[in-house]
Amino acid sequence: MILNFSTFAGERLDKITKSMQPKIILTRKSRQIENLVLLLTDDEHFPAGLFTKAEKSYIRVQKDKHKKEFISFNRLEFRIYIYFIKKELDAHKLMEECRRMGDKVGSCLNDHKVKNAVIYDPGSKGKEALAFAEGMALGSYQFLKYKNEEKTGNSLQEIQICSGSVEESDIKQLNIIVDAVYRCRTLINEPNSYLTASVFGSEVEKLAKDCGARAEVMNKKKLEALKMGGILAVNKGSDEPPTFTVMEWNPSSARNTKPFVFIGKGVVFDSGGMNLKPGNSMLDMKDDMSGAASVATVIYAIAKAKLPVHIIGLMPATDNRPGAQAIVPGDVIRMHSGMNVEVIDTDAEGRMILADALSYAKKYNPGLVIDLATLTGSAVRAVGKAAAVVMQNKAEKEVITLKNSGLEVHERLVEFPMWEDYADFLKSEVADIKNLGPPEAGAITAAKFLEKFTGYPYIHIDIAGPAFLDKRDSYRGQGGTGFGVRLLFNFINKIVIDH
Predict the structure, then answer these.
(1) How far apart are CA 23 and CA 200, in angstroms?
(2) Residue 155: which CATH number?
(3) Is 403 labeled as catalytic in the residue annotation?
(4) Has residue 5 been placed in a domain?
């Protein structure tokens, strides 16, 4: 069957990428269509010659009488999927519905070993088409590196979008974002048997080389010279040395006079240290470097897209082990800032390494600092895995923009207060501050601890809930989700580009 749409221009590619990530392509003209996804708001935009009279009647009955928004046809040689866009949803819910439906269709295509699909948008719903393609592409991610048995990966290799309201620049940016999320997920899913702190630093160097950014990996000797006591203390129980990686994108076109600094927690494996985690609590603790992975890959995406923003990523990395020299409760650690911290719990290690990075960030005179960290179980208990917790100091306007970005990309944020009352829980009898407060308000007291090492506009994001999933959740997948990459990319677009 030949479909002739007046909005098509260009031919379907003959050669399809062999990489795991499906490539998204803009097209205006198509020849033989094997698999078609129709995005419709009603039944008035059926392409001529595609459906029989009886089929059109069937579609109308399914849509109007049975209230179905998703209908599929198996034509043996190819498949047709119809998705009726819900008019009554608000913009944010609609985009998320499109992503999830894209994942559903993508899963069907992969189950049937389909390589190519065309998303046809006759009603000029470009944003919906892009969200649909995003869900298809992100939902196709797999981590198969350590599968020895004969296993075929997902088949989907190419997603064409036929729309009169989508531009090449939209497609280019979407491919970059999907690529960055894939890379982030893989970093998170890598076990500590491969991804040590040193290897993580090397992986960031590769990312920087690929996107044109600058990277520096500081070794243990350099950290000792800088007196980064928090990182060195957490690392004391490990045979693997710590690293502190700096990644910078600073184009001549940068519109911000003061750099933005993103800081990511990079605990490549967290046993809890001498306060050993019980039972299965450390089963997924390879994910405790999700914040650092998100920071590295969002800067990679920003640089790939050549966004005019000066941005710096700081990624302190180590594992947390109960070795012979490991720190113990009651120890007092002198931090990079000069502040002395009483260790109450060695499993509150993330804030120790982040504190050194936050202190180090002062050298850049930043306009804004944002940290991402799988920091507290308290955040998970408060908001679950559907959202992250956010707090701010001196960044009221920026956090509003960030929360709006969260709604747009469905990486939602729930704001907690940073009232000074909570700082009282961290007072120490023997040092300047202690690293853990009482069980109540744990996510907030953790943020109050970090705040002590700032002094600039600051946003803290606790991603302990959504960073890693035990079971599949639509296009977010299973395992590392890459939470934060799409959020911060959207935020930078809003705060720098749109303004």
Answers:
(1) 27
(2) 3.40.220.10
(3) no
(4) no
pLDDT at residue 47 in the model: 79
Task: Note whether residue 12 is domain-resident.
Answer: no
Q: Confidence class of residue 12 from pLDDT cuts 50, 70 and 90?
A: very low
Strands 479-480 and 468-469: antiparallel
User: Total domain count for the chain?
Assistant: 2
Rounded to the nearest integer, the mean pLDDT of the chain is: 93
Residues 96 and 241 in one domain: no
Are residues 278 and 147 both part of a single domain? no
Phi, psi of 140 (to 5 degrees): -85, -5
Kindly state the tokens that stand for 141. 């991610």
Same domain, 104 and 233: no
The reply to whether 87 and 233 lie within a common domain is: no
**Rounded to the nearest 5°, which phi and psi values hold at 398?**
-65, -35
Of these residues, 236, 304, 321, 351, which one is catalytic? 351
Q: Tell whether 173 is covered by a domain.
A: no
Let me know: does 492 contact 307? Beta carbons within 8 Å. yes
State the DSSP string of 286-302: GGGGHHHHHHHHHHHHH
pLDDT at 487: 98
At residue 41, the pLDDT reads 86
Average pLDDT over residues 367-385: 98
Indicate whether 2 pLDDT > 70.
Answer: no
Residue 79 has pLDDT above 60, yes or no: yes
Least confident of 8-12, 215-219, 393-397: 8-12
pLDDT digits (tens, 9 = 90+) for 389-427: 999 999 999 999 999 999 999 999 999 999 999 999 999
Pairing of strands 433-434, 340-342: parallel
The range of the structural domain enclosing residue 253 comes to 178-498
* Same domain (yes/no): 336, 194: yes
Q: Which residue has the tokens 């075929």?
A: 152
DSSP type of residue 177 = H
Question: 0.85 exceeded by the pTM?
Answer: yes
Residue 7 falls within a domain, yes or no? no
The domain boundary residue, chosen from 166, 196, 214 = 166
pLDDT tens digit string along 105-160? 999 999 999 999 999 998 899 999 999 999 999 999 999 999 887 667 899 999 99
Q: Is the pLDDT confidence value at 45 over 80?
A: no
Instruction: Enter the tokens of residue 483.
Output: 């939470």
User: Which residue is catalytic, options 214, 277, 334, 494?
Assistant: 277
Longest dimension (CA), the chain: 82
CATH no. for residue 300?
A: 3.40.630.10
- CA dist 337 and 454 (Å) reads 10
- 142 and 235 in a single domain? The answer is no
| Nearest-angstrom CA–CA distance, 473 and 298 | 22
Are both 89 and 235 inside the same structural domain?
no
Burial class (CB in 10 A: 0-12, 13-18, 19+), 32: exposed
Any catalytic annotation for residue 351?
Answer: yes
